[in-house]
Amino acid sequence: MTLHYQLDGPEGAPVVVLSNSLGTTLSLWEPQLAALTARFRVLRYDTHGHGQTAKKGRVTLSQLAGDLLTLLDSLNIKKAHFCGISMGGLTGLWLARFAPHRLLSVTIANSAAKIGEPAGWLDRARSVREEGMTTVAAGAAQRWFSEAFRHRSPQLIEPLIDQLARSDAEGYAACCEALAEADLRHEIKAITLPLLVIAGEQDPVTTVADGEFLQQQVAGSQLTIVPASHLSNVEAPQAFNDALIAFLLSQEARYAG
Ligand SMILES: O=C(O)CC1=CCC(=O)O1
């Protein structure tokens, strides 16, 4: 699988990889770009079947993670910091557990060791294959953003919902099926990498309790709760960026010292 990607920021700076959520693309990370590229080389990519990355039939969580490892190899990046949101967070947990030698640190935002229930994901996959993206797109704003933010910032939400409505149903369905079978609840205890968990205080999809479970399972990990719902990097970019960058700089200081 060849991932569509974009590199920004100073050449030679430490690399931070950003991994998008279900139904979004690398553009999801626009609110982080200016702050991160002041200090880091930022590698964003479109996950399998999303944005400009083609779909290739059935996919599993380990293949989503393997796609990124192939990209890192092709760019000759030996190690990188990783930050993923929701499905991208699950990808990060898999990498932290099974390919820790490729990561410097992991930030898991609005995610969980297991997201939702298999039946729900399989039903959503069937729905988008049969009916297209309209129904899923119509409910996305409620899943992604708090009511207050929906009223306050429709201009930030509408482009994301339009993008979702126009996205490839088969690519989306394949990732729903990957989520249906992804369950790392019994694996994450073995993670030893520095880990930051970011949870949204109003997130109905991956809850604060999901974030607390991650923090309890991974020794030495940190949890930050931000005032947002599911796509917290969009709804609370300042709080998100502050937490992420403070964590990344603390890890860089550790490696330097
Ligand atoms: O259901 C949604 O759209 C939210 C979500 C769950 C996993 C993911 O990546 O996004």
From TrEMBL:
Single GO MF descriptor: 3-oxoadipate enol-lactonase activity
Classification via Pfam families: Abhydrolase_1
Stated name of the protein: 3-oxoadipate enol-lactonase
Domain AB hydrolase-1: 14-237
GO biological process: beta-ketoadipate pathway
Entries under NCBIfam families matching the protein: protocat_pcaD
Entry-linked InterPro entries: AB_hydrolase, AB_hydrolase_1, AB_hydrolase_fold, PcaD/CatD
